[in-house]
Write a structure and sequence with these properties.
The structure holds 3 protein chains of 3 kinds. In chain A, about 5% of the residues lie in helices and about 30% in strands. Chain A is mostly beta strands. Chain A has a single domain, classed as 2Fe-2S iron-sulphur cluster binding domain, sarcosine oxidase, alpha subunit, N-terminal domain (Ubiquitin-like (UB roll), Roll), CATH 3.10.20. In chain A, a hairpin with a 2-residue loop joins strand 3 and strand 4. Chain A starts with 6 loop residues before the first strand and ends in a 17-residue tail after the last strand. Chain B is of the alpha/beta class. Helices cover about 35% and strands about 25% of the residues of chain B. The longest helix of chain B is centred in the C-terminal third of the chain and has 20 residues. The radius of gyration of chain B is 22 Å and the shape is globular. Chain C has one domain. Helices cover about 40% and strands about 5% of the residues of chain C. Chain C has a two-stranded antiparallel ribbon. The longest helix of chain C has 11 residues. Chain C starts with 6 loop residues before the first strand and ends with a helix. In chain C, about 50% of the residues are buried. The chains are: A mainly beta, B alpha/beta, C mainly alpha. Chains A and B meet through helix 1 and strand 6 of A and strand 11 and helix 3 of B. The complex binds FE2/S2 (inorganic) cluster (FES) (2 copies).
Chain lengths: ~110, ~400, ~90
């Protein structure tokens, strides 16, 4: 299944020459070199990037430019990375966040001044 | 220490400022959290009245290449979390290091306003800007068939862009009216605001609008008789007499519930139907993204015409804080061409201050050029933008009078 | 939270009726409404919901034209502890 826009009347043909592979929740997918994690997953038909930490409701991209933090995933072990502005590289391991066992609202306590 | 000017934001304003400063021989670093330079300019794609295409990717690339040639240091994928000032030195905190400078320009652009609707957290619901970037920049379809909620300049322009990429748009329609969505959900209000973009033809709808809507009576008439199934613009139905009451789907978007509304935006019972879609765009317009200016302690004014709260600044793009400048949509919502002019002005302001005021003449002409560009803008986000700028001038004078007293 | 209620703050899942209720009860300013409900205090720093929360509070209080209505506090982007550690070390 591909949702890529290969031919565009004004923007021309998409360069698909450089492909890589990465994993999302341990499943391997292919992507274009340097595209965002969010774009690659969508091109593979995947919209749900994480589940809300408390309610468990599914979330995907919302703003696509780094403002809303809805798309945060764990990338090669680093938590809280925004899938919409992180470029993919070969072999990247992406893991979605899920509902947590405990109440996480307190993460802010460490930020407040 | 080498004193590099720091610019936060690699959009049209930030890059133009960088080019302006670097071409005077000063060193500049531009920081942006996105993975490509260009900011919101990247997604833009429309045909101008003279038949030329405004291609945001090409324009961004031009700016990027020019900046690179002049030796501008562009740090991408680098979020800024805080700025502070001490003894005239600004420090800019990123994830990995702290940069220092005497001249700091904030060109952080705009963020999108939400139109909260039942079900809008479902995967597949995204801001209209998100769909634009997915389509034009990443070349991935946001979905096969979409519904756009919110009728305004931005959403109609982006609807056409999606159409160009062969994405089916079921309709552009209103959100159900509530305290938050207020004006966006009232057909009369929306019609009113659309009248100001009548120059954005080719649109039968808008042409009809501007002729018909000469006064309030006709406006009322226009809404009452506005065909329930909408009129088509670029073959996309625009439905001003319908509103989405809920976005539905099991785990992701499968469609929307839509009802007929009266001219005041109230749902007419028994009119509900379901439209199938696999993605939904929320188009609540843009507001200036000014959190760094707020953290720095700039005074703010709420100016409707500029899209929300803006940090106080003058025509030279200087804020009230020494060494802190602003340019682009952080100063009010306008098109990329105006943002570039403002970037040039901010750049000249900074260079002028670095060079003991020898660029006064250039600065004055850059300010005039900005006004000229504003007057001739093809896409205007608010019809009274110039009026908003006048208000700001008054606030600036007031503020400075109070401070010097 | 009722399943059918509209979420206003996506990060903290604060609903429309919760905000309306609180605003009515306490005649809150935007800042106070935020503190009482946590709307706007989530991961995105209120970037997504701020104006929506504002508009609910502004039904019962006047907008302050000459001051940002909801205060911003650094960091405006979440900083991970790992990264903070690198800076401090
Ligand atoms: S989608 Fe909003 S931050 Fe990634
Ligand atoms: S949406 Fe409310 S804090 Fe993020």
């Amino acid at each position: 299944m591909s949702q890529r826009i290969i031919n565009h009347p004004v923007l021309g043909k998409l360069d698909e020459s450089q492909t890589i592979t990465f994993t999302f929740n341990d499943v391997e997918y292919s992507a274009l070199q340097n595209e965002s994690i969010a774009a690659a997953l969508l091109a593979n038909g995947i919209r749900t990037l994480r589940h809300h930490e408390e309610s468990g409701s599914p979330r995907g991209i919302y703003c696509n430019i780094g403002h809303c933090f809805e798309c945060r995933v764990t990338v090669d072990g680093v938590q809280g990375e925004r899938a919409c502005l992180t470029p993919l590289t070969q072999g990247m391991k992406v893991v979605s966040g899920g509902k947590l066992q405990t109440d996480v609202r307190d993460w802010r306590a460490n930020h407040g001044k | 220490m080498e004193n590099k000017t720091i610019i936060i934001g690699a959009g049209p304003a930030g890059l133009t400022a960088a080019i302006t400063i670097a071409s005077r021989g000063h060193s500049v670093v531009v920081i942006d959290e996105y993975m490509k330079p260009g900011g919101r300019l990247l997604g833009q794609l429309y045909e101008e009245p003279n038949g030329n295409w405004w291609n945001g990717i090409v324009e961004s690339d031009k700016l990027h290449q020019q900046a690179k040639k002049l030796g501008v240091d562009i740090k991408l994928h680098t979020p800024v979390s805080n700025i502070e000032v001490q003894d005239g030195i600004w420090s800019v905190h990123t994830d990995v290091e702290i940069h220092e400078t005497t001249h700091l320009l904030l060109a952080t652009g705009a963020a999108e306003n939400p139109l909260p609707i039942k079900g809008w957290t479902l995967p597949g619901v995204m801001s209209v800007g998100a769909a634009q970037v997915m389509t034009n920049v990443h070349r991935v379809k946001p979905g096969e068939r979409g519904v756009i909620i919110g009728v305004n300049v931005l959403s109609s322009a982006i609807a056409m862009e999606l159409k160009m990429a062969d994405i089916d748009i079921a309709c552009i329609t209103l959100p159900v009216s509530n305290t938050v969505n207020e004006k966006f959900g009232q057909p009369l209000e929306v019609m009113n605001s659309l009248l100001h973009v009548s120059h954005m033809a080719p649109s039968a709808f808008i042409k009809m609008g501007s002729k018909l809507m000469k006064n309030d009576f006709f406006k009322q008439l226009g809404i009452t008789f506005f065909p329930k199934n909408g009129v088509k613009m670029w073959d996309i139905p625009i439905m001003l007499r319908k509103a989405v009451t809920e976005i539905i789907g099991d785990g992701q978007v499968e469609g929307v519930k839509i009802s007929t509304i009266n001219p005041a935006g109230e749902v007419i019972p028994g009119t509900e139907e379901i439209i199938g879609a696999d993605f939904v765009c929320i188009a609540g317009g843009l507001y200036p993204l000014a959190e760094l200016a707020a953290v720095a302690g700039c005074p703010f004014y709420h100016i409707e015409e500029l899209g929300g709260y803006v940090p106080l600044h003058n025509e030279r793009m200087e804020s009230t804080l020494p060494g802190l400048y602003v340019a682009g949509n952080i100063t009010g919502i306008e098109g990329a061409k105006v943002a570039m002019c403002q970037g040039q002005t901010a750049g000249l302001s900074i260079a002028n201050n670095l060079e003991n005021g020898i660029l006064e003449k250039e600065l004055v002409s850059s300010i005039q050029h900005t006004e000229h560009t504003r007057e001739n803008a093809y896409i205007q986000f608010h019809p009274e933008i110039a009026h908003g700028k006048d208000k700001l001038k008054l606030y600036w004078d007031e503020y400075n009078a109070a401070v010097t007293k | 939270m009722s399943e059918k209620d509209i979420i206003i703050c996506r990060c903290e899942e604060v609903t429309y009726s919760e905000l309306k209720e609180t605003a009515r009860k306490f005649q809150c300013t935007p800042r106070e409404l935020k503190l009482r409900t946590r709307a706007g205090m989530g991961y995105c720093g209120g970037r997504t919901c701020r104006n929506a929360v504002d508009s609910i509070a502004l039904e019962s209080t006047e907008r302050n034209e000459s001051q940002i209505s909801l205060k911003y506090q650094p960091p405006i982007r979440p900083v991970s502890f790992g990264k903070l550690g690198e800076v401090i070390e």
